[in-house]
Structure formats: structure tokens, C-alpha cells
Amino acid sequence: MQTSSRTFLTLRDGSVVYVRALGRGDRAGLASAVMSLSEESRYLRFASSKPSLSPRELDFLVSVDHHGHEALLAVDPVSHRGIAIVRYVQVTGEPGVVEIAATVIDEWQGRGLGGAMIALLADRAREEGHRVMRASVLAANSRSIAMLRRGGFVALRGSGSMREYERPLSR
User: Fold this and answer.
1) How far is the CA of 166 from the CAs of 40, 59, 80, 129, 153, in angstroms?
2) What span, in angstroms and rounded, lies between the C-alpha atoms of 151 and 165?
3) DSSP 106
4) How do 162-168 and 16-21 pair as beta strands?
5) Could you tell me which of 151, 142, 29 has the C-alpha nearest to residue 100?
6) Residues 141-162: pLDDT tens digits?
């Protein structure tokens, strides 16, 4: 996916969404989407109670360079609202390794959107020369863990409340 293009995804239930690169102009929509998540979804995503994102966090999240930091946004073509986001960020000191994160708003969860977007993100990471994707997930987040496993991620290590998963990006 080039940064200016759109990709259409058909989900398991037949719904169609489009995916595009996230940009600075998406700041307000991103803040609103996080606030619209249920308390449980925010906790599972951020591993803490997080009612909103700080201005500094929002600045970081929309400051993508499309190489070491990429973010893709899924949009509902009917409402034109952002409904999911996936991102990777280069891991400091580990060339070729990116840490990923995914968030799908509550009413779109369970349709395969997160997994499909992670597959697109893997393609972008591979295009940019990255070799490995890594994800840290709350041990209690069984749906995200199942999604990662379906996407080819394997457990690395983890103790306490966090688990770490990794997926090589084959060429």
C-alpha cells in the first residue's frame, strides 16, 4: 500500500471498509475514537485505565514517517468514521524489528478487521525492509492473542500480566 492509496477489505460478515495511511489531519478523529472505546477495550489496548490520549501521545501517534513508524486507518465508507488503526514503530537498538499495536472500535470487533489490517501492516513493514514484527499483549486479552496466533505470531516470553509475541516477515 502506498501512503496515498486506499485498499478495500471485505470482512467475514461481508462488510467492506477501506484502509489508508494515517496522517496528521486524523488527530481529532483518533482522539474521538479512543474516547468512544468501552472502558474494557481501552484497558485491554493500553494495559491501564485510559479515558483519553494526552496531546503529547496524540502528537506521537500521528507523526508517522512511513518507514520506522507507520500507521494504517480503516474507515467505514458509509459514516466515513475511522473504525480501526494498526501501527508499527521501529524498536530502538534492534534494526529490522518493529513493535505493533492494533485497535478496533467496539462495534467492529469480531469481524476479522484487526487480523486483516495486521496483514496489511506486515506487507508495509516488509516493503520498508523490516524483518520481524513484535507485539506485547495483556495476558487477559484472549481475543487479541487468538488474532495474533491466527496471523502467524508465536509466543516469546511473558510473565505477570503481559505476554510478548513475534512474527518473522519472510520475503
Assistant:
1) 25, 27, 33, 16, 5
2) 11
3) G
4) unpaired
5) 151
6) 999 999 999 999 999 976 788 9
CATH of domain 6-168: 3.40.630.30
Is-contact 103 137, C-beta < 8 A?
no
Asked if residues 133 and 98 have their Cβ atoms less than 8 Å apart, the reply is: yes
CA 121 from chain centre, in angstroms, equals: 8
**CA torsion angle for 146, 54, 98, 117 (degrees, to 10)?**
50
SS3 99: strand
Q: What are phi and psi of 26, to 5 degrees?
A: -95, 5
Residue with cell 467492529: 108
Q: What residue ranges do the domains of the chain occupy?
A: 6-168
| Model pTM score | 0.91
pLDDT digits (tens, 9 = 90+) for 33-89: 888 888 898 888 887 877 778 899 999 999 999 999 999 999 999 999 999 999 999
Which phi and psi angles does 7 have, rounded to 5°? -120, 135
Residue 107 phi/psi, 5° resolution?
-70, -10
